[in-house]
């Protein structure tokens, strides 16, 4: 099977380093409104931005959104919020299988983070569901106390790692730092 590329030779993605430790096939682990998540290997996953649904999305714009997502996850990680450990922004190969033409791949910009193994928050059952729900409330308080807003705080955007006993925030697209601006208005 021949592998062919479907990217333009001089794209803005070329400025990014290439992720070197990628397995041949990239299995999609999940998808959300803004991202597809692919397993790069046993240790790392790639969060690849989807095209915007409401406006045309150039490669430059997708690269900008990817870098912004990386900055947010680094800020959250350094603030002590339980998010997957950030690795960097890289070029990754997303391999697609085609019936007649063998394998194709597209090179995409991606936020690469450490892979979190466990149970998605909304899929916990029985006694574990109560524990995860309690951890979810604690996670919302942690996010708020660290000075962030979490706009998409559903259980489906978390991953519970039973080995560590930690609930990780895995969808950080709607996470943003709150900057307070205090002003004193003296009238009268």
Q: How many alpha or pi helices?
A: 2
Share of helical residues:
10-25%
> How many strand elements?
11
Class computed from helices, strands and strand pairing: alpha+beta
Oligomer: single chain
Main sheet, how many strands, which sense, barrel? 6 strands, mixed
Could you give the order of the helices and strands?
Answer: EEEEHEEEHEEEE
Contiguous runs where pLDDT drops below 50 for at least 5 residues: 1-7
First-to-last CA distance: 79 Å
- Give the percentage of residues in beta strands: 25-35%
* Tally of structural domains: 1
> Overall pLDDT, averaged?
84
| Rough outline | globular
- Evaluate the radius of gyration: 19 Å
Structural commentary:
The chain is α+β, with helices and mostly antiparallel strands and 188 residues long. The protein has one domain. Helices cover 21% and strands 32% of the residues. It has helices spanning 59-79, 127-145; strands spanning 3-5, 27-31, 35-39, 44-49, 86-98, 102-114, 119-120, 148-150, 158-161, 166-169, 175-177. Strands 1, 2, 3, 4, 5 and 6 form a six-stranded mixed sheet that branches. It is globular, with a radius of gyration of 19 Å. The chain starts with a strand and ends in an 11-residue tail after the last strand. Mean pLDDT is 84; it is low at 1-7.
